[in-house]
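Lab channel / #folding
Pinned by the channel admin:
"Please post every new chain as: sequence first, then the structure tokens as a reply. Keep commentary short and put observations after the output so the thread stays searchable."

First post following the new format, from NK:
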Amino acid sequence: MKFLLGLNWIKSLGLSIAVFVLYRILSKNFANFKEYRDIVLCVIALFLIIRFLAETPQGLERFRVAKGNKRGLGTLFMAFLPNEISAFLRFQSTLLVSFFSWLKGKKYSPEIQEGIKIEIAKKSEYGTIFIIGMLCLFVDIPICVLIASVQVPDPHQRAIIHIVVLSLSAYILMLGLGDRWKMKGSFHLLTDAMLHLRVADRVLVDIYVESISKAEFFSQDIEKWSKETKGSSDNYLIVRPCINFDKPNLLVQVDIDSKSKTLVRCVDRKTPSYFLIYVDDPNTAINLINAKLKSRSLIPRAC
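Reply from TO:
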């Protein structure tokens, strides 16, 4: 039970869906499993209720703060939801807003403009993987429709499956185009006081330059490096446009600083000690960061 309650909400919902799908598969192949339907549903519902009740105090506190700030009904509702679910919904909404901005032909303009740009999108594999992903999506649609046509004899059920497949495909396409719209204009930014890391809406990190202890080239295997440094996955954050394809080439180590801000897919998380970052030109980025560190070390501190 401790392990189950330790799962975040996204994993909890995923586990619940997996259990229900497993039950459906077993009930179709073994008639005896059909009589356990109510038990399975009760166990899933009880698990989700316990997860919700475990976070009720935090939800009530967020609701109280939002109400004190005279927020709207939508914000009050989101405040009462578990943090991971409300963050997931916010992340989806930002991607949809980006999609409609792209649809209107708007140009993405980052909120922070002044500083030295550190490019991340020009040499990234993101563009190639995005095209492959879209091709796979368009190929998958007729295959799913064909399978449904063969496996489902009832025309009404078949029509429902076709509508669901097309709706999900259209929604995934909208999210992908929204992410791509911001990704094409994303870059990290270095100012005299801050290092701003931005990867579309997926990663938003603001690090004070004075809290950076070192910046160096990174070329190791991430798992091997993690074992050597004896760090957990919570102790470092990988910042890259394309997951699994863009290899981090810049390591930034920071002192634990409560002033720094770290958002990953709209989830506020504790700032880690290490950032493994992909940039187009790591040598230039390292020189720029180290130059800022050197210049700040020369500034006399107030007594």
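NK: The two ends are 53 Å apart (CA to CA).
TO: also worth noting, The longest helix spans residues 155-183.
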